[in-house]
């Protein structure tokens, strides 16, 4: 389970660090399942870390999703122990249409056991763990997936993994059967959280469904403003020459305008100012090229999700190249605020 003691030990020991990453993978997957799928509440237990509630499964269950979960986690544990596991993918699929409704990606990085770990404190890991758990808890604001939804999973390995390796319960999948080719075409990811123990790193990101941030880049240019205008205490609309569906709300919102007319330094790939009207997103600086970017444009809702040296997507490995547009992230945060007050 997740405790202050397990956090403390994970930053001190390579073996206990690996155990902690396994624990957090399990906890993250369980809480995503809890908040997104319709599974009987009786299947879960509630625990608390740092005043943040999170769910665990009861020891025995006949539920097919929970049984699949246990198989997956056993396989992941085996692959993590061998330093083979690179990414774990979890898909929620409409069983009637075959469409991927949402998918979650878990990325892993390891250090060699005999190498000196990078500095990481108990307080830092406690904070990043709390942030991840709170982000998962915030999923409760969204309606669960309805209808016939099934769960599928895939895992990928590092290049030095033996070709014949197959973890318990899994088989090697032909490339044309993999769902990866589909999700790579489905836009940007939202980073839910990242954990770093000094020995190991786990990052969770998501696409689709409630994470879809559909704002056209082409509609925002030198001559265009995207306004959120207050019409009355119960409704607002997004205006960009034409009105989209009204969103009901129970609180007043101040005028929020995106405009590139402000004369501020622009380093971010989105080409918008570093400060946008009354809203100033967190700014992060790449340690390699010194580019200053909006945190959301690099895949982070804000800088609290960043717990290691930041490298922008120009300088990252291709494997880590994921980002949100600034406009998308702004609307994501605004929509969350609206839903919180409905």
From TrEMBL:
Identify the GO cellular component terms for this protein: chromosome; nucleus
BP term (GO), one: meiotic cell cycle
What keywords tag this UniProt record? Answer: Chromosome, Meiosis, Nucleus
This protein's source sits in the domain of life called: Eukaryota
The keyword Nucleus belongs to this UniProt entry's keyword annotation? yes
**Keyword Nucleus on entry:** yes
Report the subcellular localization: Chromosome; Nucleus
What are the HORMA domain coordinates in residue numbering? 15-206
Protein name stated in the entry = HORMA domain-containing protein
């Amino acid at each position: 389970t997740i405790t202050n003691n397990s956090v403390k030990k994970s930053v001190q020991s390579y073996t206990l660090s690996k155990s902690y990453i396994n624990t957090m993978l399990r906890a993250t997957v369980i809480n995503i399942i809890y908040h997104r799928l319709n599974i009987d509440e009786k299947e879960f237990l509630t625990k608390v870390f740092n005043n943040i509630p999170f769910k665990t499964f009861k020891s025995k269950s006949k539920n097919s999703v929970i049984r699949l979960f246990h198989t997956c986690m056993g396989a992941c544990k085996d692959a993590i122990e061998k330093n083979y596991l690179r990414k774990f993918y979890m898909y929620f699929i409409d069983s009637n249409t075959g469409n991927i409704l949402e998918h979650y990606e878990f990325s892993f990085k390891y250090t060699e056991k005999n190498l000196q770990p990078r500095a990481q404190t108990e307080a830092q890991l406690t904070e990043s763990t709390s942030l991840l758990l709170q982000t998962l808890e915030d999923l409760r604001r969204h309606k669960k997936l309805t209808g016939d939804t099934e769960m599928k999973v895939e895992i990928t390995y590092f290049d030095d993994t033996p070709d014949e390796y197959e973890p318990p319960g899994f088989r090697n999948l032909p490339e044309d059967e993999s769902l990866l080719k589909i999700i790579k075409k489905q836009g940007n990811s939202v980073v839910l959280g990242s954990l770093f123990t000094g020995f190991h790193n786990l990052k969770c990101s998501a696409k689709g469904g409630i994470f879809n941030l559909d704002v056209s880049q082409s509609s925002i240019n030198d001559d265009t403003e995207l306004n959120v205008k207050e019409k009355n205490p119960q409704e607002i609309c997004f205006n960009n020459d034409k009105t989209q569906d009204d969103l009901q709300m129970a609180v007043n919102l101040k005028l929020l305008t995106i405009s590139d007319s402000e004369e501020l330094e622009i380093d971010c790939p989105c080409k918008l100012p570093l400060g946008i009207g009354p809203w100033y997103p967190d700014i992060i600086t790449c340690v390699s090229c010194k580019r200053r970017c909006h945190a959301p444009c690099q895949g982070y809702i804000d800088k609290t999700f960043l717990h290691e040296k930041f490298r922008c997507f120009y300088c990252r490995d291709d494997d880590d190249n994921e980002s949100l547009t600034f406009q998308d992230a702004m609307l994501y945060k605004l929509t969350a605020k609206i839903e919180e007050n409905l």
